[in-house]
Design goal:
It is built from 19 helices and 16 strands. By secondary structure, the protein is α/β, with parallel strands linked by helices. The chain has a domain at 93-109 and 226-429: Rossmann fold (3-Layer(aba) Sandwich). The chain is globular, with a radius of gyration of 20 Å.
């Protein structure tokens, strides 16, 4: 088997294999790592339809990993990663009203991030054991990534994890899922600011090459290619389930997104040959991405707190990966465009990508959608999924079924469900158990020097 290579969107890194790409996280030239070639799997689709979720995950992933990880080791890693999920099919796909809901929230932290981060945590541990290495993970979260990352690596040998989250801007349960984990290798940092402040500090730390090298920094945010890779799988999985159930030849998928990582995985699946006719990008009031796909202008706004906090993001950290393809895989053009955005906070990309539709679901639409789906179908949507459903309804196409990705269990956002409906509807035993646990965190300014000092002191 060959060994697929990865290149940087900015062209300043020699091609590396999958293992090096995972450990590098953010590319050393400040860009993002992407596969040098995308496998065409159209000839394998009928064979893949029959596979279980872990079997499908192995097939999809091995095309991007090759012999960098021996086949038996990769199979075991995938099996272990999905054995922690509460349902045997890992990702159930359910018909709800006129739509299909792809439930991605049956992992340990009840969020779609578990699908990637259970795998990434096991992959990190496996690669470190091979090299007897050490890894210090630094991440920034707008809600779910932090807890999923912590639960992916808690107690794992050779790894410490530092997660920054905006104080008072994640839900109380999301905060508890992070701060109640007692393992000594877990460090929670509440920052005085927004998620974008955390994201900025994260990039500054990774661009400090001496610090990155001396402290063995690694990334779990969606900048890590392994995150995107694990997410590609459920696009194939849901397309197979729904085309089988309906007899349709393809589907469209609605994705609530703030960081562009989840929908970028769908873009990759589509390019590989998954039976997906269109991706529907759904944002809340923080609509930099939906504005871009509708107007061609990518321009920074102010972060607005909403009922779907994991999407309260303006600078989408994965957008550069898509931009690379949109600009004809021209790394020099990507460098120039990203430098322009850093200076002017605004870029214009001419033309339109017909593979995407985009829309915005605001607070009123979110609440109305939660109410309507519960009353009409008895199905409870979390606020992020409700944004995806609200936007999906604007793009219904006769004969093409629509799948909406359900990104979190509604119990993680019980206050919103209560606001839309009534108290006591959104509960989950895992979350109820958190309420009695002790928590720990530090509160720091979102300044590179302050965070750097805290990491260095803690590790000393």
């Amino acid at each position: 088997m060959d060994r697929p290579l990865y290149v940087s969107t900015r062209g300043g890194v020699a091609p590396v294999d999958f293992n090096a790409a995972v450990m590098m996280g953010l590319a050393d030239d400040g860009g993002l790592l992407i596969p040098a070639a995308i496998p065409d799997v159209t000839s394998k689709l009928s064979e893949w339809r029959k596979l279980s979720y872990p079997e499908l995950a192995y097939e999809v992933m091995s095309g991007f990993i090759g012999d960098a990880v021996p086949a038996d080791d990769l199979k075991a890693l995938v099996q272990r990663s999905y054995s922690t999920f509460a349902v045997p099919e890992v990702v159930p796909v359910k018909a709800v009203g006129k739509l299909f809901i792809c439930e991605l929230f049956h992992g340990p932290t009840l969020a779609f991030k578990d699908i990637a981060l259970q795998f990434l945590g096991n992959m990190f541990e496996y690669l470190l054991a091979r090299t007897k290495g050490k890894l210090n993970i630094i991440g920034a979260t707008s809600g779910d990534t932090g807890s999923a990352a912590i639960h992916g690596v808690r107690g794992k040998a050779g790894i410490d994890i530092f997660i920054m989250f905006p104080e008072g801007r994640v839900s109380p349960l999301q905060e508890r899922q992070m701060t109640s984990v007692p393992d000594a290798n877990v460090h929670c940092i509440a920052i005085k600011g927004t998620f974008d402040d955390g994201q900025r500090v994260l990039k500054e730390l990774f661009n400090d090459m001496a610090f990155k090298r001396d402290y063995h920094l690694g990334a779990v945010n969606s900048v890590n290619w392994a995150r995107v890779l694990a997410q590609i799988v459920y696009y194939f999985w849901s397309a197979f389930r729904v085309t089988e159930a309906t007899g349709a030849s393809s589907i469209q998928v609605s994705v609530p997104t703030g960081n562009f990582g989840d929908i970028f995985a769908g873009y990759m699946a589509k390019r590989m040959g998954a039976p997906i006719s269109r991706l529907i990008l759904a944002t809340n009031e923080n609509d930099i991405l939906s504005r871009f796909f509708n107007t061609g202008e990518y321009s920074l706004g102010k972060v607005v707190p909403t009922l779907s906090p994991s999407m309260d993001i303006q600078v989408a950290s994965n957008f550069e990966r898509y931009l690379y393809y949109r600009l004809g895989q021209d790394a020099a053009k990507v460098r120039e465009t990203m430098a322009l955005f850093a200076k002017d906070k605004r870029i214009i990309v001419p033309g339109k990508d017909e593979g995407f539709a985009a829309g915005r679901g605001d607070t009123a639409m979110t609440l109305e959608t939660i109410r309507r789906y519960y009353r009409e179908s008895g199905y409870l949507l979390d606020p992020h999924t409700a944004v995806g459903v609200a936007v999906a309804e604007q793009y219904a196409v006769e004969g093409v079924p629509t799948v909406c990705l359900a990104t979190a269990h509604p119990a993680k956002f019980a206050a919103t469900i209560e606001k839309a409906l009534e108290p006591g509807l959104a509960v989950h035993p895992t979350l109820e158990a958190l309420k009695a646990l002790p928590t720990r965190k530090v509160l720091l300014e979102p300044v590179k020097g302050v965070i750097k000092e805290y990491v260095a002191t803690t590790l000393r």
